[in-house]
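Why should sequence recovery work at all? Because a backbone constrains its sequence more than one might expect. Tight turns favour small or flexible residues, buried strands favour hydrophobic ones, and helices have their own preferences. The token representation captures these environments compactly. In the example below, the structure is given first.
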């Protein structure tokens, strides 16, 4: 190196020399999930869903009961308006299309969302019974005793029930607000 422009050789740079003289095998671990890890995650999600879904569906059914409450409330109000002008409560929900049919309140026989069938029974001068029954085949039909909700007015006293009258079971559970 006496002033000459010499080129560096592979011997001068050990890293270049190593590349040419030996093979370095570098192993990389793959960056994904193994089948076992995925199966464990799926099993955990399935268990959580099995626990949460029934509770979620119960909450949905409970919130959909508001449809029946609104329909029963509409019948109560219409019956009171009817009774204010007549000697007895109305015998039917719908308006009578012909003379032989009992006069009605002009209300539909299903709730506004169509989840419950509404019926009147035991009508007279001192009371009536209105029942909201979940439509067969809907998720509300699986609402246990709360699939049938009833309002009974007898002698000026109102009673709320669930299930089949007169054997109502735990009405406060279904009518809780």
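From this structural description, the recovered sequence reads:
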């Amino acid at each position: 190196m006496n002033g000459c422009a010499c080129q560096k050789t592979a011997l001068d740079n050990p890293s270049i020399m190593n590349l040419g003289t030996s093979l370095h095998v570098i192993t990389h671990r793959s960056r994904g999930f193994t089948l076992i890890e995925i199966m464990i995650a799926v099993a955990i999600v399935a268990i959580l869903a099995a626990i949460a879904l029934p509770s979620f569906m119960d909450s949905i059914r409970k919130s959909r009961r508001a449809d029946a409450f609104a329909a029963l409330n509409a019948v109560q109000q219409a019956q009171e308006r009817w009774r204010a002008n007549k000697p007895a409560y109305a015998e039917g929900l719908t308006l009578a299309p012909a003379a032989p049919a009992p006069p009605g309140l002009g209300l539909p026989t299903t709730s506004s969302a169509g989840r419950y069938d509404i019926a009147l029974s035991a009508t007279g001068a001192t009371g009536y019974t209105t029942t909201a029954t979940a439509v067969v085949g809907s998720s509300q039909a699986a609402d246990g005793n709360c699939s049938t909700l009833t309002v009974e007015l007898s002698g000026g006293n109102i009673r709320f029930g669930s299930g089949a009258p007169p054997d109502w079971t735990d009405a406060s559970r279904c009518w809780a607000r």
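A few observations help interpret the result. The mean pLDDT is 78.
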